[in-house]
Structure formats: C-alpha cells, structure tokens
Specification:
Blueprint (H helix, E strand, L loop, with lengths): L3 E2 L5 E2 L7 H11 L4 H8 L3 H8 L7 H11 L3 H31 L4 H6 L9 H12 L7 H8 L11
C-alpha cells in the first residue's frame, strides 16, 4: 500500500487503509484458531489480541515480532500496515480540521475584512483561521458562542407591555 509514482512528480496516495487487526483476524481465521488459542501461541493476552483485532490498540514493534514468529509474516510488514493506518487516520483528522475551518471562515465577510485591513490577504485556510481568531479574540472556533454570549444585549422588559 505504499506510494506509487505516477506521471511526473505526482504521487498516488490511497484514500483508504485497513487496520492491521483486520489482517490479523483473517490470518487467525484461516488457520482455524480462535483468538484465545492465538493469544496463547503468541504469548499475548486475549484482551490485547481482541483490542488489536478491533482496531483499538496498535501493532507495536514488539507485537509485530510475536506475529512474525507465529504467523510467518515479516514484522516490518505488520509495522508498515500500522504506519499506513496511522497516516490514514492523521489525513482524515486533517481533512476534518480543514472542513471545520472552512465552515468557520464561511461565517465571516472575509473579503471585506481583508479589504479593510483587518485580515492579511492569503489563500492559506489555516492562516486565515488564525487571523480571524486573533481578530475576534478567541482561542478556537468552538469559543465563538462564548464570544457571542458576551456581546449579547439585554433590554429591559416592561411588566405592563409585551
């Protein structure tokens, strides 16, 4: 699942990955073992095997060596699967951050703020978010509601009139 060179300098990066636990589950099943049997053979706890298979725990270097001894698949393949999974998760998190940042920025008249000198002209969304946060005086996009609440106007209400 490595990076494949395409035309020119462009690299192909898949938009998917599988946790090594999925491969481990297939290997265990193909051998006719249950998780407890495999855990005994690999000198691992059944809970650790279960959490790896369920994608909760990573395949560490130590675990990869045990998997290599029992299953015959090289340890570097297991660690590469884990590294690919970790990179995929990091990319997903970054995309989510960018989506949230884009939504945050779309709530403001960015062009007008740039024209008036309140924000620096840029196409970098992360820099734009940073400038907006400084301009508004908040630590992060989720603090926006607190800022709005502090600016809220409370009018007097008459008991005699609606």
């Amino acid at each position: 699942m490595g990076v494949v060179k395409a035309e020119g300098n462009r690299e192909w990066t898949p938009d998917w990955a599988t946790h090594p636990g999925e491969h481990l589950a297939e290997y265990i099943e193909s051998r006719g073992w249950n998780q407890a049997e495999f855990a005994r053979l690999a000198d691992m706890t059944p809970k650790l095997v279960s959490t790896i298979i369920n994608g909760v725990n990573p395949v560490t270097a130590e675990t990869a060596l045990k998997l290599e001894r029992v299953l015959g698949m090289k340890a570097n393949i297991w660690t590469s699967l884990q590294a690919n999974w970790d990179l995929h998760q990091a990319r997903l998190a970054k995309e989510k951050q960018l989506d949230e940042a884009s939504k945050f920025v779309s709530c403001f008249p960015v062009k007008e703020l740039i024209d008036r000198g309140a924000l620096r002209p840029t196409r970098d969304i992360s820099r734009l978010v940073e400038d907006l946060l400084r301009f508004i005086g908040i630590g992060g996009p989720h603090a926006m509601q607190a800022r709005f609440d502090s600016l809220a106007v409370h009018h007097r209400q008459s008991r005699a009139f609606n």
